Homoserine kinase
Amino acid sequence: MVWCISIPASTANLGPGFDSIGIALDKYLELEVELGFDWKIINLSGNLPDVPNPLDHLIVQAAEKTAELHGFSLPPCTVRVKSEIPLARGMGSSASAIVAGIELANQIMELHLTAQDKLKVATLMEGHPDNAAASIYGGFTISSNAANGEINVFHANHIEASFVLFIPNFELKTTMARQVLPDSYSRQEAAQASAIANLLTAAFLSSAFEQVGTYMEQDLLHEPYRLDMIPQSKEIKIAAKQAGAYGTCISGAGPTLLSLVEKGTEQDFISKLKGQFPDYNLVEVPMNRTGIVVTIKDTENAH
């Protein structure tokens, strides 16, 4: 039996939705899993880490953690992996790997985990739920860690939003992007930041994309500190607006930038900016609406 597991990439924050808003993207981490005699990870594409010892691999660690939390010991597997999600670019590559491992354990051990169960394990490993929530549920998610250990999630997948990503040819580790943030904010800053995030959410859920674009560019919590770490980011924001984007923000912790554009104008938008930013690859990426998808191939009856 072969389990085929597909996990979407994600973007987080959308500007002011810091560490809470996530959106699933139409780029995928794909696994083919079979029971084996020892753990084997076989990379079938680029965008994947070279991890000589499979037990050090994030997918395997997430799978074993999931089994252990539910009182099981996971049998070893052979895992063939393909990825369209570039590493350390702000597209949720680590969250996708963790979610993939959780789903692997869920399938192999027949744990019957709910989406909420999966998100709890992912948040335990990631520290915050925004990217993982989007990869698990698909669509647009808002999530937060409640004081009682529960994770509150809002999920909507009716929104017809279109994005163009500016994916750079260089990495930015999330740990580096976190280090530049202040330890605290004034009450006035916090209140203003909260108001902007509320406006962004209301506009996004109403498909008022022009307003969304305005609020995407008004974040106070992380973008003012991170933009200087991303070469040409300010120029990209200006050029994107001139080319017709509603708004542009950092995707996750960066260094990828994300423009919200009118549906149907993606290729026109990309062609207007062609050649202006040679260190960036411009890619049209729709929202993903499905979240995790699992199919099972019965190899015994295959001819």
Q: What stands out?
A: DSSP finds ten helices and eleven strands in the chain. The chain has two domains: 2-157+288-297, 162-286.
